Amino acid sequence: MRDADPKPIRLVDYRPPDWLVDTVDLDIGLHPTATVIRARLGMRPNPAGREGAPIVLDGDELVLKSLALDGETLAGNAYSVTPSSLTLLAPPQRALTLEIETLLDPSANTKLMGLYRSSGTYCTQCEAEGFRRITYFPDRPDVLAVYTTRIEAEREEAPVLLGNGNKVEEGELPGTTRHFAVWHDPWPKPCYLFALVGGRLDRVGDRFVTATGRDVELGIYVEPGKAARAGYAMDALKRSMRWDEEAFGCEYDLDVFNIVAVADFNMGAMENKGLNIFNDKYVLASPETATDNDYASIEGIIAHEYFHNWTGNRITCRDWFQLCLKEGLTVFRDQEFSADQRSRPVKRIIDVRLLKAYQFTEDAGPLAHPVRPATYREINNFYTATVYEKGAEVVRMLKTLLGSEGFRNGMDLYFERHDGQAATIEDFLACFADATGTDLAQFALWYAQSGTPQLAITGEWNPAERSYRLDVEQSVPPTPGQPDKQPMVIPLALGLVGPSGEDLPLTLADGTSPAGGVLTVDAPRHSFVFRDVAERPVPSLNRGFAAPVRLASNLSSDDLVFLARHDRDPFNRFEAVQTLALGYLIEATQAVRSGRNLPEPAALIAAMGASLADPALDPAFVGQVLTVPSESDIAREIGRDVDPDAVYAARATLRRAVGTALAEPLAGAFERFAAPGPYSPDAASAGRRTLRNTCLSLLAEAGAGEGVARALGLYRAADNMTDRLQSLMTLCHHAPGQRAEVLADFYERFRDDPLVLDKWFGIQSQIPEPGTLDRVRELTGHPAFSLRNPNRVRALIGSFATGNPTQFNRADGAGYDFLADTVLGLDGSNPQLAARLLGALKSWRVLEEGRRGKAEAALRRIAGTAGLSPDVSDIVTRSLA
Ligand code: B3K
Ligand code: ZN
Prior knowledge:
The two termini are 26 Å apart. The chain has 26 helices and 31 strands. Helices cover 41% and strands 20% of the residues.
């Protein structure tokens, strides 16, 4: 057992390892309950470590069977051992070989960290600290070794044996039912990138020839019978490999690249060297079972894990504080890949929606932390939207500030200078500083200061002077542990849109023009004056959402309507409508609470109607424009004393008003964008479906345009999961009379398909009506429900807690109690999953008093429970602090 209340680990305490490991030779005898691991570690004292230091190896729930040094069994007084550490008190201070034998029970491993079994398949997950659950080892990312892995298993049980690197040997064990394979990975790596798989799996194979002619054998391994669903993932993999060569000059470096899909996985996927292991949700797709969003996620995650081969694997992290070095950068890379494969503006809109929904919320609550945290108690709780998504935004800002060429030069230098190393954020920034001659000291605050910066901008046209002045003020709100903040470097991308809709030239008072239309805001206050502005422009601010900030400006609703129609920056056309909608929704929420009449959303409806009527616009884009901010978006913007019922009522009223006022064009678009042929997951076809389904949902909400009848028709005739699921959702929300029938139909069609059943569970947990909590409770007793499968838990309970604001936040607190019970029930078997679920309560302080008290009581009940895991203990403590 690990200590539930470990001392915080601090970045400032980093010390290089005392001992290095150059080679790791593993001999693994797979057995369902008694797997034997023999590890031979070639070690030597680290010249940069402390002289004469003992060898201290990490373990986690390990059972030591034997220990030898240079071939000699060690006497009991030469070492001390517990399940969580192995110490050689006075080792000879020279190169030596340590042989360690441990015994594991993979079938009993419900934490899904280390070596475990998923539907009978042996697999591993070692990031962040899972390798120590396999053998005693210096489990830290700055110990890089060359691994050779021999895996032995029953041929019947595990005909497929996979490891990192290239396969160098395989064979039978004569006279037995066992066989083996030996894998060698020539690239030194930290132990968190170790992986092995053994099982009965089907394979989809392909080849890829790299830019310099290396012939790579590609394999995707899936549960028997599911190979036909791995084709899209394979296609995405090949496109990723080509793109990384073209966009970043990164070429693959082994003869084999394998991906294995497993059903039980704590997160999305894992970038183990040459052997990525995936949650099968992000590999398996067919038109009948996967939605357009599923296809897009598969493409993005396949790319993400592949891109880690350079950003993460060839160059890894010195310590876990540097997690964003690989994650933020790799998210940025996968976002750019998807933008190039699909519609760049729509991709940016979707990414910013997610950023605001998850990261802005995190940054505004008790779990806020810097992109590079300075301290942690449980590293698994720091795989967050801040490290990933804000981390990606910081890289994007670097590119905006340095320009494409400067950015690419910095990346090239990073690959050249740090290949084969465990690096830091300082190393990374130094490459950009050196490649471009830019001082990035102040920019580095983006890694150290938490909280979402705010920009307050006032623009004023001076007709007499023919000038336009922008007064810009920045501030960063206080966050846990950081009461006072310093000013940040914020790239302010902007345009001045003239009355005819054209961008006016941007000439500052001194005659210069900001490069690329980007002003640098680095002081608390600035005044920028543009000259030669003959007509009153409307400023288009933070174009492309170049900076991840909150923006308040003096733009009027007429200005926003104008931008929605004319801005040449598509992101800001979209954002103008969202800003109008949020303004309306905040006012409407207040009106609901005080029993006043709701305001008229005329300007907003006109702006939406204009988008819908504009044939030049991409349907996917129009679909985004018509998607009004979510209940959580509204709650986040209100920021305090939130009543989720009032938010819901305001939003439903707006959607009804839109559906009623635009009934005709919405119904027209629904007809016009019907698919011309069979299903294809490409971005253009997906965009048409997004638009149609958005139209349908607005019509159904308004009871207009035969919305419900059309949804029923679409459900019955659907040849793909996107239409079937969207129409099912619309019917579940707006046609209670039809609900039971369509849900039963859906269940019967897909009862044997776990990934689709997850959707069935998820849809029911998100119905915004008072019976839902009881329904969710009842569904936990459904034969198909299991707390052992993370996807299922997230589908039913996760989506209830994060996707059903009115019912999770029931005024009687029953939603919070249910979550607390589930978290406590799960904590013993899968603490990582339990801690994730608990994250749903992170915004409890913004709730109105009654709910706030109930949420706090649920958190206190968890905090007061004995024997919590470090994972849950950390989240609950910080949530209450
Ligand atoms: N690096 C993994 C995440 C590991 C999570 C460990 N708790 C997947 C990824 O970000 O690519
Ligand atoms: Zn990653």
